[in-house]
Amino acid sequence: MTAKNPEHSIAHETKSAGAEQLISKFKSLMADAEALLKATEDHPGETISSIRNQVLETLAGAKESLSSVESNLLDKAKVAAEGADDFVHRNITLGRR
Length: 97
Prior knowledge:
Order of helices and strands: HH
Helix content: over 70%
Number of strands: 0
Radius of gyration: 22 Å
Number of helices: 2
């Protein structure tokens, strides 16, 4: 059995927390951008309309990307949890022999 490097574990937890914080801030930014777009709906003009459409397209793409990243993180978390569960069960079994 190999010993786990505590520094690696801390770095992994820090990355995960950083990713979650980044996702949260990005969601907040998207909500703010959508609110700004909604507030400019009544403003006439080709320039504002064009910019609004560009931002809407960008937000739609960003939401898709964010959803993919969240899904990827969730999948990795599940794999890690399953690995930890398996590790615990194997070591409990070994300890009982």
